[in-house]
Amino acid sequence: MIKVTIFNEYKHEQNNEKAIAVYPDGIHNVLKGFLECDEISVRCVTLFDKELNIKEDIGLSDEVLSNTDVLIWWGHVAHTKVPDDVVERCHKHIMDGMGAIFLHSAHHSKLFKKLMGTTCNLKWRFPSKERLWNINPAHPIMQNVPEYFDIGLEEMYGERFDIPTPDELLMIGAFDGYEVFRAACTFQRGYGKVFYFQPGHETNPTFYIPEVQTIIKNAVYWAKPLYRQSFGAPKYEKVEL
Ligand code: ZN
Question: How confident is the model at residue 224 (pLDDT cuts 50, 70, 90)?
Fold first, then answer.
């Protein structure tokens, strides 16, 4: 059983009519809906409660993270409201082997920026048509993903995307203004596998698109830890041959 924890900011889907219309129960519940199966269990946590107050306890305790194989992150307008100790805790678990998937505007989350060590800035415009090209079809995350598919309207994210060179580049997004974007990238940080995937603006039904769901589900299987251990820096005694 792969244990997934979804963090969703959960503000737009409670105070923006367009987002409410697309995701009436929140983005997290749509993600949960297509991920949950015999092999994957899903827990959801949110930053905002139903009264649109920021929760004192988001629910990303050491105990929860120790019982999480893959953390999925969606946030946008309240990245700075995520407490630093939560970010530090998540970062440590990723370094120790927990997988992490960052969706769309999570590129500017404290946690992703800490993992990348760069600004993670990019160009943006809304709305724009997007075509996503699968440029690494042999990769596990690209299984059952066609050569290309169209998203309809999505937010344009354009290069330069200020990230370190990814370990693997899986997809390039092409937009109607001829902008291009590294839309699906993998990184290893510590023992943890990290995946960034660009589509997923809150007012568009992107997370209902079958190809998008396939990619995120494949990424869960890919990112699950095969080895999980805290780093140390031990003095190492010689072992005689
Ligand atoms: Zn957006």
Answer: very high
